[in-house]
Write a structure and sequence with these properties.
By secondary structure, the chain is mainly alpha-helical. The protein is built from 5 helices and no strands. The chain has helices at 2-5, 9-15, 21-37, 47-143, 147-159. The radius of gyration is 58 Å and the shape is rod-shaped.
């Protein structure tokens, strides 16, 4: 070991056949550590460390599995939500269309009511005019002395 710790090119190149300088430097450094500080201590195998490592791996795998299940569940839930949202959007559009049709129908109903009121007023005016004309003709007939003119006024009155 002391011979390796010292820079000895003949030992590393000719005897050990190490040509790469970085490998030679690493070997010299390890040999120097061994000479100065002694051989590395062999650590005892710790069962507690192994147990903790296994438990950590199991917990990690369980966490990954749980995340996978939650991801799958959330994707399914998102698909259902999107379908529901599309259905609500179609229902909203249908409602909007129905509201427009209702507004058009209400406008037509108002127009018809106005026309009805106007037509009723015209008919009342015509009826009142006809009654007034009939009243005038009755008065003329009753005030008439000639039978022929009375008959003529009576026919006009009936017409009214």
């Amino acid at each position: 070991m002391p011979r390796l710790a010292v820079k000895n090119a003949t030992l590393t190149v000719s005897i050990m056949k190490i040509l790469d300088r970085s490998h030679v430097q690493k070997l010299q450094l390890k040999a120097l550590d061994t000479v100065l500080f002694g051989p590395p201590l062999m650590s005892r195998h710790s069962h507690l460390k192994d147990f903790i490592l296994v438990v950590s791996i199991v917990i990690g795998m369980g966490g990954c599995w749980f995340a996978y299940i939650q991801n799958r569940y959330s994707k399914e839930h998102m698909k259902k939500t999107m379908k529901d949202l599309e259905g609500l959007q179609r229902a909203e559009q249908s409602l909007h269309d129905l509201q427009q049709k209702l507004q058009i129908a209400q406008e037509e109903h108002r127009t018809v009511e106005v026309e009805k009121v106007n037509l009723e007023q015209k008919l009342r005016d015509e009826i009142n005019a006809a009654k007034q004309e009939a009243q005038r003709l009755r008065e003329l007939r009753e005030g008439s002395e000639n039978e022929l003119s009375r008959q003529k006024y009576a026919e006009e009155e009936l017409e009214q």
